[in-house]
């Protein structure tokens, strides 16, 4: 897992690249540029099952530029400061889940 800091020293959420995550996830509602409620979907974590409640796009301001991450699942039950970028989803067959320069 690799840590990716959204903005340095501003208190904004940090994101981690996770090769084991099946999707992009966050529990931070304020991170979303677009937000669409959906029927709850189960998410299996190492210790329990939680539920994704919405999906949308997140825009990250990085020192190297701005990127948009699509198909991020909102899971309120996740640990509050856990924001995961799925390496597999970025490189998978579905281009909607990839990161793009914004």
Could you walk me through the main structural features you see in this protein, from its secondary elements to its overall organization?
This protein is mainly beta and about 100 residues long. It has one domain: Cathepsin D, subunit A, domain 1 (Beta Barrel), CATH 2.40.70. It has one helix and eight strands; from the N terminus they run βββββββαβ. Strands 1, 2, 3, 4, 5, 6, 7 and 8 form an eight-stranded mixed sheet that branches. The chain starts with a strand and ends with a strand.
Beta-strand percentage?
over 45%
Main beta sheet: strand number and arrangement?
Answer: 8 strands, mixed
Low-pLDDT sequence parts: none
Give the structural class.
mainly beta
Kindly provide the name of the CATH class. Answer: Mainly Beta
Shape: globular
Distance between the termini: 24 Å
The overall pLDDT, averaged over residues, is 81
CATH architecture: Beta Barrel
Number of spatially distinct domains? 1
């Amino acid at each position: 897992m690799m840590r990716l800091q959204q903005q340095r020293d501003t208190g904004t959420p940090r994101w981690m690249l996770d090769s084991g995550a099946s999707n992009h996830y966050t529990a931070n509602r304020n991170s979303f540029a677009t937000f669409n409620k959906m029927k709850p979907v189960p998410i299996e974590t190492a210790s329990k099952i939680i539920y994704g409640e919405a999906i949308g796009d997140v825009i990250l301001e990085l020192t190297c530029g701005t990127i948009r991450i699509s198909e991020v699942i909102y899971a309120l039950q996740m640990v509050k400061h856990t924001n995961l970028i799925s390496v597999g989803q970025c490189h998978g067959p579905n281009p909607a889940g990839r990161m793009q320069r914004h």
